[in-house]
Amino acid sequence: MTTIDQPSEDTAGQTPRPPRKSRRMAREFALQALYQWTVRGGETADILHQFSELKRYPQIDDGYFADAVRDAIGQRDALEARFSPYLDRAAAELSPVEYAILLLASYELVHRLDVPYRVVMNEAIDLAKRYGGTDGHKFVNGVLDKLAAQARAEEIAYARKQRRNPQ
Description:
N-utilizing Substance Protein B Homolog, Chain A; 8 helices; 64% helix
């Protein structure tokens, strides 16, 4: 029996790993930061600093959070141009939550190719369910599904091929 103070045999003599920082929580923080920026504006550096002072901040993947917020705000026009063709209304008419989710997920789909498109989709839908309106997740899913088909066509084709012909 091991206790918290005693290392188990398989970890004895090894340097303990630091706690894994949460990318999921970083996305949640990024959504909140982008929402704040959408509603109130402000300087990106000030928003990043404000979030860095939150109690749960040490638990997040802070590099991912900062990159996502900085790049989504900095590339807002280009990202909005990527998802706007799939909207059923003008981007300015979206709720601030839906807009922030689409901005964040568009950034990930277009610029974070290290994140599988299914992860981007699932995380965005989860955020929409938690923070958006009643059917906001369905709207977000529909828009991102179309954007992913355009931005990640090769990855999606490969995934479909793998599902049809598992090896």
